[in-house]
Structures are given as C-alpha cells and as structure tokens.
Design a protein that fits this description.
Length: about 1200
Amino acid sequence: MQKSSRKKGKIRWSKLYSFSCFQPHTIDTVPAQDLIGKIGFSRVVFCNQPQLRKMKPYKYANNSISTTKYNVATFLPKALFEQFRRVANLYFLLAALLSFTSSPVKRETLIVPLVIVVGISMIKEAVEDWYRLLQDMNVNNRTVKAHAGNGIFVDKFWRELSVGDVVKVNKNEYFPSDLLLLSSSYEDGACYVETMNLDGETNLKIKRCLEATLGLNEDEEFNQFRATIRCEDPNPSLYTFVGNLEFQDQTHPLCPSQVLLRDSKLRNTDFVYGVVIFSGNDTKVVRNSTRAPSKRSQIERKMDKVIYLLFSVLLVISLITSIGSVLFMKSDMVQWWYLRLQDPEDPKPVKSGFQQFIRAFILYGYLIPISLYVSIEIVKVLQAMFINKDIEMYDQVTCKSVEARTSNLNEELGQVEILLSDKTGTLTCNQMEFRKCSIAGISYGGALNEVDLAASKRMNNDVEANRFSIENSGSTSQIFEMFEFSLADSSIQKAVLEDQEGLDFLNSGNSRISNVGKETVVKGFNFRDDRLMNNQWIYRSDLFNVTMFFIVMALCHTGIPVEGDETDKLKYEAESPEEVAFLIASQEFGFQFCQRTQSILVLKELDPSSGKKVKREYKLLHLLEFCSSRKRMSVVVSDEEGKIFLLCKGADSVIFDRLADNGRAYQQATTSHLSSYAEDGLRTLAFAYRRIDQADYEQWNSIFTKAKTTIGPERNELLEKASEMIEKDLILLGVAAVEDKLQKGVPECIDKLAQAGLKIWLLTGDKKETAINIGFACSLLQQDMRQFHIYLSEEAESNNQMKAMKEEILHQIESSYHVMCTDSDRSSPFALVVDGRALEIALHCDIKYKFLQLASNCASVICCRVSPKQKALITRSVKEHTGSTVLAIGDGANDVGMIQEADIGVGISGQEGMQAVMASDFSLPQFRFLERLLIVHGHWCYKRISKMVLYFVYKNIVLGLTLFYYELYTCFSGEVLYDAWYLTTFNVLLTSLPVISLGVFEQDVPSYVCLQPFTSKGKKIIFLLEPDRGLDIEWHGCILVIFLANMYILSPSAFMEKGYVADITHFGAIMYTCIIWTVNCQIALIITHFTWIQHLFIWGSIVLWYIFLLVYGALPPAYSDRGFQVITESIGSAPIYWMVTLLVVVVALLPCFIHIVIQRWFNPMDDHVIQEMKHCRKDITENQMWLREQRNSQKMTQIGFSARVEAKVSSFEEGLHRKKRSI
C-alpha cells in the first residue's frame, strides 16, 4: 500500500488538467484583493503564532459548537417562558396569586399542583437538552493532529482548536474547521475533498495549495513556519473566499480552491496540512445553519384554543355567579346577611359581588385541566421510548435504531402531508454500480427491473420467460444478436393472448441472464449477461466496437489504481463514483487499468486473438476534463503502434451533436436503450472515439498548447474553442448505465407514503440529470409523466439582468400552469423540475405565489443544484403557502437548515457525520424506517393524543359544571360542594393513570394493518379535534344526570337511619364518587385495545378513591376537615349511597353507549370495520374478504412503485390489444 501511495504522490495533477476547474482563478482576482482591510474583509489570522492570537481584536471564537436550546444561565428564564406560554399554566399562576387575597379553597391546593406540573415539564426539557449536549460533546471531543511546537504534532480535541493553529488531517477524516490548505501528500499540493455534507454532491472536489507553501510537507518543516492571513470576515457563502497570505515577505492571493471547509472529508489523499482560518460558529457550514427553533405540534396549538374556550366559559359562569350573588343579596339583603363576604358593618353588594367573582374564578378553575399538559408530556416521553425500542426499526447493519430526539412532535408524525427529502445519503447509498450497457446498438445486462416483474405478476405472465436471446458462439449473425423478445412478435403474442402456458421453450438456448446465485458479488459491479461475461465478448461479430468500448471505459478517466484485497484485483479512487464503477467494470470485462504516471496509462487487457492477458502502454497526450458546462471528458492517447485516438465520454445529447456522418450507425437503437435505462433510473454516459492523423494532431496540439499557457480571462474561451476543434467527427460506440444505488426499501417506502396521501419533493445539490435519474429510480418520476422544467437560459444567465431573468421564469411558470389547467387528460400526472438558480428567482416575493401554486399541483417536485439556504427557504415557503404539516429528511450538514425549518425534522444517522441528526427531531438509520415511523407510530400517537385531549376536557367539564350547578341550586351562596383535597386529587391522582394508559397503549388497529393501503376516500384514518354537537349533548346529559339524580334522590328523604338527612359533606362525597366512577368507566368505553395495565389503572383508580376516603377520613379533623370518618361512619353504611352510585353511572353512560352502538351498526368508520374483522378473525377465516377490503380501499396514486406498475400494465395491455387486433 505504501508503494502505491508513493506512486500516487508523484503525479502532478496540475499538469493533467486544462480547464479552470483546477487551475488557480485569475478572473477578478485583483479587484477582490483590493477589498482586504475594508469593512467585511478585516480578519487577520496569525499562523502558528499562539502568543499573538490572545490579544484583541485577534482573539476569535473557539472551535466548539452547540445545538442545545439552553445553558446554565438561560435554562431557568427560557424554560419558565416556554411553560407559561401555555395558557393553562398562565391561568393557574394567576389563580395561585389570587388565592392570597380571597380563596374558596386552601391556597396549597392551587400552588402544589402548579409547581408539580411546571417542574415535571422543565425536568423533561432539561433531560432532552442534556442528550443534545452529549451529542455536541461527541463532536467537540473528536481529535485531530495539531502542531504543538518544535515540529511536533499531537492529538488535540476539536473544541480546543484556535484560529491560526496548524493541523494535519489524514485520509477519510473530517476537517475540524475551515482551513487554508498548505500542502498535501501529493507532490504539487493537490487533494481530493468530499463535500456531500455541504452540497450533497457525490463527486470529489480537487483542492490545491499555493506553490509558496508546497515545501511544508513534513512535520519538522513547521518548526519555523510563520505567516499572516488577511481575509474576509465570517460569512455563509460556501463557494467564495477572498484573502491574502503574507509568507516569507511576499503576498499571495487566495481563492476558494485553497480553502477546506468544516465537515468536508479528505478522500484519496494520505494527508494534508492546513491552518485554521474560521473556527466554531464562524465556520461557513455553521453560518449556513440556524438555531434550533421551538416547535409545537398542531394539537398543542389547538389545545391552546380549547383552553381559551374553556377560559371564556370560566369567565362567563364566574360573571353569572357574581351578578347572581349581587342580585339575590340586593333583594334578600336582610335575610341573607351571612352570605356577604365583606365587613358586615359596611354592606356593599357590589364589593361583595366582586369578591364572589374572584372566588368563582378560582373555584371553577377546575374546568381548565392543569394536569393536561404534564400528562401529555409524560405520555409523549413514554411514546418516544416505545418508538426508540421498536425492534422493527432497528438496522442490523449499522446497529442503530430510530431515536426520538424530542417527544413534543410524536402526534405530528400522523399529520404529515408534504415530505421534503435530500437525495445523497438519504435516498441513495453513495455507491455506484455498473448495471447495463449498449454497444453497437445491442443492449446488454438482462436483469429485469422490479416494475416489469410486478407488472408481469399482475398480468399472470412470467415476463422473464418472454425475454431471451439466441446465442451461437462465433457464428451468430448480428441480426440474430440484436433480436430480443418484444410485443411485436406475433406468434408469442398470440400465445399470451390465448393464455397458453409453457413458454419456457423460449429459454431453451443459452440464457443471456446469468445465474446470480453462482456469481461472485463484486462491489460496484452488478452486471449479468453471459454474452459479455467470462470473456465471451471475444466471440462477438462486432468485436472491434466492443473492444473500443472497453478501452474508452478503461482509459477515459482520472482514476488511480490502488492495491485490492485480492492479488489479481485492484481497487480504484477517482473524482466521481461513476468513474470508479467504470474502472471496476472494465476490470471485470478483462481490461484492467493497473498503472498511471504523468504521461503513461497501462492496461492489462485480454487479447482476443490469443485469449491471453497482455500489458499495453498508452501514451497520455492530453486530458480534457469533465465539468458541468462541457458535460463531457476526453483523453488523447497514442497506442504502441503510434496510432492517435481521441476517447470521449459524456452526456448523450452532447456526444450525439459531435458525431460524424459515418458515426451514427447505432444512434437510433442507442437512443431507444437510453430511454429504457432512464426509466429504470440509471445514469448514462455515451462513449465515442475518433482516429486522428499525425498531421492533424500536431496542428491542433500547437493551438491547444498556446491556449493552455495563456494567462488572463480569455484563457477558458481559447481552451473551449481548441477542444471543440478536436472533439468532433466522433464515432458512436454505445452507452454505459450505472445505478446510484438506492438504500434498501426506498421505492417501497415512497410507494407506501404516496398511498398514505403524502406529496414528496426531492431537494438535492446534484445536477439536473442526476436528480431526474434518481427520480425515476425511486418512482417519483415515470415515463408517462408530463415534466415541466423551470430553468434559466444561458443567455439570460450570462446577461445577469434580474428583470429579464424574472420575466423568463415567470413566463415558464405561467405557461406550465396553463398547460396543466387546459390538459384534457387529467389521468396523466405532472412533475416539476427546477434548477437552483431559477429557484432562487422563483422564490422572490412577486412570483413566489405562482411558483408554489404550480408546484403544489404537481404529483412530484424535484429541485436540483439547491444550496443549504435555499433548502430552508423552500421549506418555509411550502409551509406558509400550503398550511400543511411538512417533514424534511436529510443526512448532511447541508440539510440542517431544512430540517430545522420544517414542522418535523428527520436526520439520517448515516455516513455523513452527525450534524443533521443533532439538528433533527427524529433520527433514522435508514430512509425505509420512515414508513413505519409515520404510518404506524404517527397514526397511533395522533389518535392517542386526540382521545386524551377530548377525554381530559370531558372529565374536567364534568367536575367543574357540577360545582356551577350546585352554585345555581344554592342561589349563588359561594359554598364549595367538594372538599379542597378532593379537588386537588381529581386530576393528580384519581383520573391521571387511566388517561396516561390510553395515551401510551391505545391501538385502533394493529401495526400490520396500518401498513396496508386502507384509506377512506383518500383520507387518513384520524380523529380531528373539531366541534361535535352530538358529543356536546352527551357530555351535558351526563353532567345533568350526575347532579340532578343526586340532588333529587338525596334531598327529599332521609339519608340514614333515625331520619338523618344528607348535608353538604354527604352530597359532596356521594356526587364525587359518581364522577369518579363515571369518568373512569367512560374511558373504558372509548378504549379499543385493552392490556392488563389499562385494566389495572382504570379499576385501580376507582379502588384508590375508596382507599383515599379511608386514609383521609382517619386523619384528625384539623387535617381532614369535612372528610373526617365520612366513609366509615356516614355514607359507607347507607345502602342508598351504593344504589345512587350504580344508578347514576348507568344512566350517565347510557347515551354514549347507544351512540357507539348506532355508529358502528349503521355508519361505521374504516377502523371500526377492521376492528370487527379482527375480532371475528375474518382476516384468517375469510382471507378473500380481507383482500377485497384492501382492494376496495386502495387509493390510486400518481407517484410511487404502484403507480409505475399500473402504467406498465396499461402499456402492456395496450400493446396486447393492438397486436390482438392485428392478429
């Protein structure tokens, strides 16, 4: 390995590359340097001089980062602010303060519950923030080699780095801060950098240091190193940098190609030396992020509205009580003097009425459930624990599971309507595989895709049996080689149409599809076709074209061979993963690229004539590298016989435009194959070549050399013109298709989410072609979709006139929307593809609405070349425009802004660091687990929390309104019906555990049913907190039954033996008993999934009430007050107490029971039907019925795997019908 590394180090990459993607920038360099020292460009960095960095103004931020919401100083004020943003907590704080003036109950019974509720919530916030702190510490405690003096490098924590420190970063390590590249393991100071965390791009970027610092390539060289950097101030721009390096009495201009950004990774380079220029919060990636916002779910916001409503009711009934008290006292002042609250010597009914209002305001406060928030907090924490422990969301490969990093948004998972997803590392594995190729008009690589297989199952045909080739080694004519089964074959079509079986005879010859089980799996190579594998290509009739195709694949690249695990196999490192896949493929086909020097490329290739491996050298004359504007790459080489060839690969549109008249023989067939590959979501590159005469080459070489040595802004233009001179008159060889490998289960997950009604947007930093390919691969796009492309023309972009660019984008948006509105074929879905520069303009205020209107009406939206800031802006705009719940998912630092801006942020704990995870609300090891997180846990959590809130409001209204009705019954006397500790224990002790069990264990349907496509007219099975008049009638009927039954049964007659009648103590205890029984039996009616824990909590709460009466009554009267011996000496021995309890509970719950029966019998919801089927085991005994319900309830979608299968089936059926008519 060391030997290989030394070979790599000798390559001077700066001499291989021609265009400005690698050369130092010369355009606009001088004007930019003039800004140094002015506003915005005042930063001064003293390199390797720690004594100077401690002085102001040169003491900059340290390198630690923090994603926590609180610190020691801000926790108390910020946490209290968060708690008292909740209306209920604010009310009880006011009530607690008012209790010091005039209170109908003991002030301790108001203060203690408030302290408990707020305290528990604050503890929960502290624990969650503590976990964020631990993850921050994990990042800040990473180590890097830093210069400690005397040329010695020691391990140093990231958090301890300071601006000006010299660090040494080794291969595959992340850069700890923004660094200025000083030197690398390569001779000319070049290095490869992976920037997936920043821009989502998979291709490697090449950075190169200044020539002045090339000599700093050993540890000892830094003993005397001193320099000063004057540069721009910290800013979020990832692609710009302006500065000067003052070194050895000379000033050198700096540009972005010398800057290594934090969270980028060093690849294909043994080591680099760099000096810290921006640290911690000053780094560009952190500047692109935003502080973690405080997110609240829709239910929590709706709960505030419910509390406002209850608060309004509280004010109204308090006012009624106050006014009633004043009126009664005025009319019966003399008789009711004892009801006055003020000094008897100064009788003022109005003043007494005001005090009565304060007492009522405090007393009726039990309408507002103080424990609602804290109970929901507890339930959400327990829900999060169950989510974290779900074994179905554990990834055995990475040994990671789903983690709910905040529990505030559990129920919001069930309300997601729009999903915004990153591509690289989120949907894909960052691995390229060689899958198919087309050579000389023949397609190779016979693996059927899953869409074809699923469509064949739908049509009860075995598609694989219908695909074949007739192979005859060496003698088969090209006509037969190009033959492939298609829907044009009439005899086979007739057999299919007549449902004949036994089509296996079609495979009687040698199958072109290899037996995968017998193949050795090669990473990066997933190609199966016996016509090319195992050196069978040497028997092809078009041998020259096949050989040239493999030679282009093996030579046209910038890769480097490194030693592999096997003796005869090499591994490769290159700028892009596509090049690595091509090199692995060429090696498998017998063309092994084994050595590279500055001017020589060496291949071990199979000689078709002898069948033996021979080593051949190709002289590298020129390399015209790939860049986004050229969309192609070429190498000019000469073989051992002195023949000169131009080998070219690039985008098919670019290559086709440069073909010679005699080089288009296979263009039509190749175009057809390109369409097929694109539908499968594969990336394609066209291969072509040209033979160059010696005289033509020498003439072109002089022109190109002159252009290459030109210094000035015209250099790129001259190089482009020179390259156009030679990259023409090409002969097409074919195309190669590679797959940006999707993560396991991504298409299936997207299909299920589409079935659930979610709209999916893809946001990526990759180029448009790559994004579209992935759109096809994960079924966001399909062939029958109408695609709208919003982009800036080259002319408008070059002019850089904002008005003209706006007009162009607006015209594209309006024309696309017009087509959408006037399209007669409504069944054909629409897709929108937007470029990053066009997106920046489209999101301006004056045209943003029209853009979002177009986008929201498309089945899928793909945004490419978007920056981290644009991702966050898109997320915010979509939220504001649609009002829908938006979920954003990503895995890199470039996704942090999007994750934080969304209603729910999900981070993938993959291979791109932990920045996305630390900023997220939920973290997943794989994208596929999003399906279960949303459809199962989101569904359950939303339904549980909805039922909880409704039940909480119900039980508190029952308690609060009985107090009010008693106030009316006693002519607004201000007397309290219940003992103060009865009121305190109601929410805290006697009704809290059943509702917590409801929120944690309730399941309307099992998890596997949730994952089935059961929908109701496209609407998710959820409960919404909307007003329900039937529910209002049930509630008030229940309250009236409890109050009136107690009053009119107990009042007219004796309560006990010897004629004792019930007093307020007995009334309060008996009515309170009825309430405890009623509300706990009510929760038993609404629970659909019982566990032993729920039974224990429900019936245990009722038993606990009697235990409380015994214990409380046993206390001395000074403590127990009215409750002294009330159960043992009074109500417990009275038969009427037990009879009233039974009667009231049955009558109070009867309307609710009847409503449930009628609804389930005459108007059942989807979950009611499923529950009945499960209860009667009809999913097992009557499987056809179960499948019928699935089919009837399945929603037709416009994206996803199912939609592609439907489109494929329709295409097959149309072809069959056409052929049937022709037959």
